[in-house]
Design brief:
Distance between the termini of chain A: 13 Å
Strand content of chain A: 35-45%
Mean pLDDT of chain A: 95
Largest interface: A-D, 21 and 21 residues
Low-confidence stretches of chain A: none
Number of helices of chain A: 3
Oligomer: homotetramer
Number of domains of chain A: 1
Helix content of chain A: 10-25%
Shape of chain A: elongated
Radius of gyration of chain A: 16 Å
Number of strands of chain A: 5
Largest sheet of chain A: 5 strands, antiparallel
Strand order of the largest sheet of chain A: 1-3-4-5-2
Chain lengths: 140, 140, 140, 140
Amino acid sequence: MTAPVFEWPIRVYWEDTDAGGIVFYANYLRFFERARTEWLRSLGLGQQALCDEHGGMFVVADVSLKYLKPARLDDRLRATVRLTEAGRASLAVHQQVWLDGPDGTTTLLCEGQVRAGWVSHRSLKTMRIPAAVLQLVGAA
Amino acid sequence: MTAPVFEWPIRVYWEDTDAGGIVFYANYLRFFERARTEWLRSLGLGQQALCDEHGGMFVVADVSLKYLKPARLDDRLRATVRLTEAGRASLAVHQQVWLDGPDGTTTLLCEGQVRAGWVSHRSLKTMRIPAAVLQLVGAA
Amino acid sequence: MTAPVFEWPIRVYWEDTDAGGIVFYANYLRFFERARTEWLRSLGLGQQALCDEHGGMFVVADVSLKYLKPARLDDRLRATVRLTEAGRASLAVHQQVWLDGPDGTTTLLCEGQVRAGWVSHRSLKTMRIPAAVLQLVGAA
Amino acid sequence: MTAPVFEWPIRVYWEDTDAGGIVFYANYLRFFERARTEWLRSLGLGQQALCDEHGGMFVVADVSLKYLKPARLDDRLRATVRLTEAGRASLAVHQQVWLDGPDGTTTLLCEGQVRAGWVSHRSLKTMRIPAAVLQLVGAA
């Protein structure tokens, strides 16, 4: 049984592109992050609130991603998140960025894995993810 | 009598450009900020240290800038800072970005004014700039 | 008689903030640009299409902005655009960023003027704005 | 026999940090890119010139990276590049980001692999890397 897929729309603006005429490769990590943030928010987990209440935050520990096709200015994208692992101190998700073409086609542009650990906001040391957070994530 | 001009070299990377083939307009504010940070550092004012010692930080209050010519990938730029006003709670500087061409020419690309206020790191409320800071800036 | 105000929602993500805990000052220019792009799109003016058809693009010529209050992670903002001047070769707009608080309040965070000229995509030289573009903008 | 390691200094500015007080995870890809660009430049390979002469450019195909320790405002970093594979249509490099502490210590913050393919500037289709480029890279 696999976890449901969360989707978040992204529009490509000038700020996202580079002189090659395409989205700069680092910016897919911004898109991934927005989708993870909205996924958590959809579960009732606002990150500013989490930090205020639990004194912790998610920090990315590792990333691997493949760039399959480029995105361009004005493109309509969809970034996805699917939970693949929920451990005591970290979550792993599979993420994709899709292009929704004007002709109704949909094309996978980029995909990868992201693992984020839960750390103290002050010391940045790894901590156990609060049970309430894990429950909401697992309940997804 | 005018204050001396501080200069800081900037190289244009892919990250700075957009699909128009030129440096994205917001990124000149990043260049300006780097030059202000290095100007302060050259006066012995590291901003992380300032925050740790005085509990305050500079936050930009207003900006005006003109874009005269575009910069492109691989261009060698120079960002400048010249103090124009040091008040109790804010500093104003004049800043420019110059292109140093491969042929020895130098061209003004962008210039403007930036005013930064001194605020509490916690409350973000305006405070008086610490005397030690003003002295070092004024000594420039 | 003043032009209508176009509004575009913006959410503050980690990418927008800095170590001061607030939105980095240059990023308001990203927000402003998104709102201008969506305003043009709402008038039927996609910028990639404009470039393909007319060989031109808008490039910002000058900016002035005031930062009144900071925005923070997870904040819900609204960026606005109001046309203030449509010339032969440039457009001027007044733009604002508002915070929509969780308590129903709305607070002006940042505002300014932006003037963008129309230039050749290849030569980057100033050109007259295509009549069709001016008509759609003026019709707003 | 391993390829030599190229190093490039990076300073952490406000623009690089996020509200967690540390460098935003996507920005390590900006640091990696700067180091690759300077590595190529050190071999006589300016990317704008490459594009003008050969009509091609390097585009990242895949990335994997691990974040070991966070970087903070004002930190002095070093980004490295070491060629691990030079194929007909792509190059692979191993990259690291090191922190040079004020106390003389040096700490590995982030490391990973990046593979970049050579594509046509116009069509973005994969092409064979020009022999002259491969020779200079291999000569490293």
